[in-house]
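Sat 14:20. Reprocessing the chain from the morning session after the first attempt stalled halfway. Input below, unchanged.
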Amino acid sequence: MGLKRIVTVALTAFVLVSVGYVIYTEGASRATPGPETVPASDTAGNDDAVVYAYYFHGNVRCVTCKNIEANMRQVVEENFADEVKNGSLVMNVLNIDEPVNEHFVKDFELAHNGVVLVVRKGTEVVRFEELAKVWELTQEPETMRDYLTDATLGFLGSAAS
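Finished this time. Tokens:
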């Protein structure tokens, strides 16, 4: 009888700690501020092209999804601080399970979470590309960051011309 009670208490404690950890980590990830973004309307005229680096996720986020977002943030913060500051690059992390963001699934033909680069002139989308290769590079973070950097540079170059 004593062993059964010990196992029950131990399993209950494990479940409670696990649930608490999930709640804590989800709350911490939502509270963590991203890179500063400058709205394009504050810095660019209506005719200026702006590159948007979107990271789209759902309500449930795995470790891999969080790592892709972290690599994208690192690339933007370390390699494109000037572009963020002058408004030619804006990074947004959006939950596509929220009703206000559902249109992005259709707009950018999203099948899953991921990174999408977009060139906009005013409200018009000039070009967009989902960077699906990030999923192939999840075990190679440095290669992933190089891929994200090169793609972002390409979009910034096309926006400038």
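The helical segments are 2-31, 40-43, 63-79, 81-86, 103-107, 141-160.
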